[in-house]
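Let's do one together. I've listed all components of the complex below, 628 residues spread over two lines.
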Amino acid sequence: MITTAWPLLPYQISAKPADLLYTNFRHLLHAKMQEAPDREFMIFPETDRRYTYREFYDLTITASEWLRPRTRAFGTISIIFRNTPEFLSIFFGAVAHGINVVPINPDLALQEIRFIAENSDSEAVFYDAELKHKLAPLQTEMPAMKFHPLADVADMPKVDVVAVEAALPDVPPTTPAAIIYTSGTTGFPKGVILSHMNFIIDGMGMAEWFQFSPATRSLCILPMFHNNGLVVSLTTTLYRGGSIVIIDPKASLRSFWALVDRYQCTHTSVMPSILAAILALGFEGRPGRLQAIICGGQLLPLSLAEKFEAKFGIPIFEGFGSTEATSYSCFNRFPADKRKLGSVGTVLPISDMQVVDENDVEVPDGTEGEICIRGANVAIGYHKLPELQEMKFRGGWYHSGDYGLRDSNGDYYFRSRKDDLIVKGGEKIYPAEIENVLSQHPNVAESAVIGIDDPILGQEICAFARLKDNSANSEADLLAYCAKSLARFKQPKRIVITNRLGDMPELPKGPTKKILHRLLRQYYEKRLANSEDMETLKWVLGSQG
Amino acid sequence: MTSQEIYSALAPIVEQVLQIPKFDETTSMYTAPMWDSLKHVQLLSAIEKKFDIEISADEAFKLTSAERLVRYLQGAIDKGTRS
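Okay, and this is what the predicted structure of the assembly comes out as:
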């Protein structure tokens, strides 16, 4: 049945509606289980746990029954796990009830976790038992919220699978499946609501683009609490009945090639920073059966792609997308000899893309403008942010805020963002999130945050702070203050106290007194960058000696 | 070496690399936010130097907590893999 058989939002209707063969996650998993129940589906090398399609399907039904007395069908829950069977069984078990799942990064600071759990209207939080000590203060602060630890899926009582699945509700494809939180311009994370249809259509689009098959074996080294892990590694591979090797992202770097080789992986999805680190650290390895590396989330420097391909002989396929379009909407053409390097490729058949001017009028090919997306992979919208919703999802298109152009062959080129978004190792961070925290410090009069070049992560974070008169706080004091409220990846690498700069004691401002981040970036590049820009690389390389 | 001796030998290395105040049996990638992917690489390199061993890439991704590190090192030492 085509997608338009269901009530779609204006920006979810593309020129060529796609076939939706599976209406929800359980339907998709059940169909693949019936095709090949004994085929291996998931491998977790860290704990040596493996699941066939039948075993994993039964596990998700078991999880759905475990969740039933702890949740409400079609309600909302938060889950805090690493890339484990516990995460995936809870996710599939919950969405089988029509529950909207909010995956939360375990590394977030407590107040960030609290904001997401409350903002999403979660009724309960399910978390890895290993996080018990970390989350204990939140349980005291949030007495109305139910917290449920889970150490091991094997602890869940066995169930009669047939009886349990018969009692599960019919979940329409437009039902929300997840709220993915991303950085927000206001200083607080914003929730993007994705439906079952969004995931399945985007997964289908990529699985067909890269000609996935039951022989496909994906290596998942990106976190499942982000849409990239959930869609590019999981849904795409599931869609074609392949198998997935799932590993903790923080532990995978040094073992990348060993995992590729040992598990005979055919595909993987990465951020450019991972390729940069593998090259910089000099990790050698055999590509084995690896056929393609899917890459995006931040700008892929052409020189990095060329060096990596020359060294390892594996083609990199760069794509373009956003959480608001589930994941990717656009990819380098497949197979490799059809790619146009330096481009982010052409639009997937599941969606439409166009480039528009400031009046939302489509511009001719070769002209730069804002990239817009529409189709069944475009999200339901933002959670409880009506003004932003109206601004970004207007005129039947999602307006990405990314600027670029399309050439006469239909290949897109990313150029820049109009706002000050920082992309650090694929993590998107708006300066306002950090500025909000610094502004709460009693001795900070004002602050501004910029992205600075980093040889591995793409960008790092630099904050400028002006202290109130006579304050003696050091950079280290302010860094420690940030560490209390911000996840590690959002903490600035450096904080510059402007009172102590001879040539810029005040933050530069425009006529409306708005801080000019552009001038701060220029100042950093001219005055401060030389001592900083290679620090990360030297530090990491030094560790190898 | 006993596990306690391994803890004692590991503690200064982990505390220095991860910049954490105290390394104990509860330390893991979960509980120490500083323990990110680049620090993991740096930490294993420092442990290899200290214990004069080579941690294979097939094992490196499993060494994500104090308990696992100590168990691995105890096994490596017991098997006489010190070179």
